[in-house]
Amino acid sequence: MQKKRVIVLASGSGSNFQALIDYAKNNDISYEICGLIVNIPDIYAIERAKLANIPFKIISHKSYESRADFEIALHDALIEMGAQIVVCAGFMRILGADFVDNWDGKMINIHPSLLPKYKGLHTHKRAIEAGDKEGGCTVHFVNSGVDEGAIIGQAQVPIFENDNEQDLAKRVLEKEHKLFPFCLEMVASNQAKLENGKCLIDGSEKIISL
Ligand code: GRF
C-alpha cells in the first residue's frame, strides 16, 4: 500500500518531529514524513529537517495581517506539499474552524497532559500544583476547540513528591516520543478513525494506552 504523506507543523525544538522520523526509518509502516512547516524562523526543528533531508517551509504568522490569512497560507502550503495527514508536533498556534474543518479526521496533535485535564499551557506546573500523582500525554484528532478533539491514545507517568516542572516535562516527553509515532501509525493505517466526533480503534470506541 502507498504510504500516507505526513506533513508536520512545529514551533519548537522538534523532538517529537524527530521521534516520528526515527520511527518511520526503523519500522515498516504506513506513513512517510514528507515535510515540515514551522511558524517561527529559527527553531531547531528546521535543523532536524535539514539533517533528515526533509523539505521544510517557514510560514511566519507575523507576516500576515490576520489569523485567517495565515491559515490560508498554511493550508495552501500543506496542499502544495501533498499532505494527506497533518501532524501538530509542538505547534503553538491556535487554528480556527475554517482551517481545521478542511482536515477533519486527518489532523492530529500531541498535548502534554492527560486530557481532558489541563488543556492549554503550563500543564506540568498545574498537575504538580494540584497534587496529582499521575501525569502524561495525549494524542488526539484536532477539532476547532483547543485540545478538545477525540482522543486517540494516552500514556501515563508517575508524579513524585519532589518533582519540579522540568522533571515531569522530561518524563512525559519520553512517553510522547513513543506514543506519538504509534498513534500516527494507527491513523495512517486506518486502524484509528474519526467517526461522528469519536475515535474508533479497529471499529470500536476505545483509547490506545501505552
Ligand atoms: C511537547 O511537550 C508537546 O507535547 C508540546 O510541546 C512540546 C514540544 O516539544 N505541545 P518538541 O518541540 O517536540 O521537542
How would you sum up this structure in a few lines?
The chain is 33% helix and 26% strand.
Distinct compounds present: 5-O-phosphono-beta-D-ribofuranosylamine
Structural class: alpha/beta
CATH hierarchy, class: Alpha Beta
Number of domains: 1
Q: Roughly how many Å is the radius of gyration? A: 16 Å
As residue ranges, the low-confidence spans are none
How far apart lie the N and C ends?
27 Å
| CATH homologous superfamily title | Formyl transferase, N-terminal domain
Order of helices and strands: EHEHEHEHEHEEHEEEE
Identify the quaternary structure here: single chain
Number of strands: 11
| CATH-defined topology | Rossmann fold
The best one-word shape is: globular
CATH architecture: 3-Layer(aba) Sandwich
Strand order of the largest sheet: 3-2-1-4-5-6-7-11
For the biggest sheet, the summary is: 8 strands, mixed
Q: How large a portion of the residues is in β-strands, by DSSP E? A: 25-35%
Helix content: 25-40%
Overall pLDDT metric: 97
Number of helices: 6
What key attributes describe this structure?
11 strands; 3-stranded antiparallel beta sheet; globular; Rossmann fold; alpha/beta; 210 residues; 33% helix; 26% strand; binds 5-O-phosphono-beta-D-ribofuranosylamine; 6 helices; 8-stranded mixed beta sheet
What does this structure look like?
The chain has helices spanning 15-26, 44-51, 67-80, 97-101, 123-129, 165-188; strands at residues 4-10, 31-38, 56-58, 85-88, 107-111, 134-141, 151-158, 192-195, 198-201, 204-205, 208-209. With 210 residues, the protein is an alpha/beta fold. It has one domain: Rossmann fold. An eight-stranded mixed sheet has the order 3-2-1-4-5-6-7-11, sandwiched between helices. The radius of gyration is 16 Å and the shape is globular. It starts with a strand and ends with a strand. The model has no long low-confidence stretch (mean pLDDT 97). The structure holds 5-O-phosphono-beta-D-ribofuranosylamine. 5-O-phosphono-beta-D-ribofuranosylamine (GRF) binds next to α1, β5 and α6.
